[in-house]
Amino acid sequence: MQALWSRAGQAHHCGCKACFNTAGGMMRQSATRATRRKPTFSEMFTACYTSIMGTAAVLDAKRKDERRKDLDRQLEEAKAEFAKVMENAPADTRETAPAGSIANRYKGALRDHKKQQSEISDFFDSLGRTQTWPKAPSRSPEVEMIWAEYGLEPTRRSMSALLGTDYPSLDRLLFEDEALPNIQHRAPKTIRQMKAAENNMQQLVSSLLHGKAVIGSGDTKKTRRELDKAKHGDCDTQNLQQELAELRQSNYPHYEREVDSGALKKCSADLNRSLRSIFEVAQPSNLRATIMKVCHNLLVSSQPPTIHTYNTLIKGFDAAGLHPLASDVVKSLLQSKLEPTQGTLVCLLNHFKETNDSGKFNNIIERMTGRDCRGIKIRRKLIDEVLEDPSSRDGHY
């Protein structure tokens, strides 16, 4: 095209001003006109990418708008159904969960409920520790005379019977606990746990065989004299003491590995039966032999002790008057991870009553009621376990 404009400018003209301007203009236009260039690959790619992404954005926006409208419709339907349910709800619907409801036993269950009234607990908290309570004032002479005149003064025998423990009833309670089929015993599952159980039993046996605890267990001088007589005069006791020394030198007990729950329950029942038979014949004259026999049975047992074994030991030592040894068993129990039964709590309270230890007695109650953060090693029950318990279904806990 430029060549044509150039040839046209070179054509002959008359030289007038009009012809000169026309030819000059055609020549300048042919010289200054830019050439058309071809588009590059990057420009073509950018144009295609922009058009594709724009089309995708339009389609995605349309789909999101449809999804938003569908969600709004579902939300409106749910609100309408909830409003209908609230309108048809009975007027006496509870705003708070019942006091004995299972829902109150799980974390977060009371999030939407009102806090239960606590006037009773606030009253007992205001009293302070029981050790600081003032003693009751003594009766006036007039009241003492009326009591003596009408025979209202309690006798020493009646008071001792009132404060005493009914150990046969406690025996029946422990036997019923042991016969329950739904109790699951905690058995060691690894070699490390098995070694820990063996070490704990060795420490318990060592504390039971401690000379000071054994000799000082009697409550009267007569009991101590009987212990001193039996210390060197009983040949069977000496043989048993020698056998115990050999067992302890051999690092007994040695518990069996990988035993099922049935074998564990049977071994525990046999051990507890032998311990009960030993405590039944316990007398001030054979207390040393009684302790050695108990330790011997604990060492030769093929399975770790269960919670029923601890119950039997605490009750047996308290009934025999060996309260320091029962305290050693209580200490070992509280350091273990065994779940207590109802009989365990009764044995603990009875032990601290027998030892006249009001501080630890109250501490056990605080651990039972949850005021002590350590608890009493009672885990939270599963809903299925609560439903299987008929007493829980009836509302009794």
Automatic annotation (TrEMBL):
Residues 61-88 form a coiled coil. Keywords: Coiled coil. PPR repeats lie at residues 306-340. It comes from the Eukaryota. InterPro entries: PPR_rpt, TPR-like_helical_dom_sf. PROSITE patterns: PPR (PS51375). This is Uncharacterized protein.
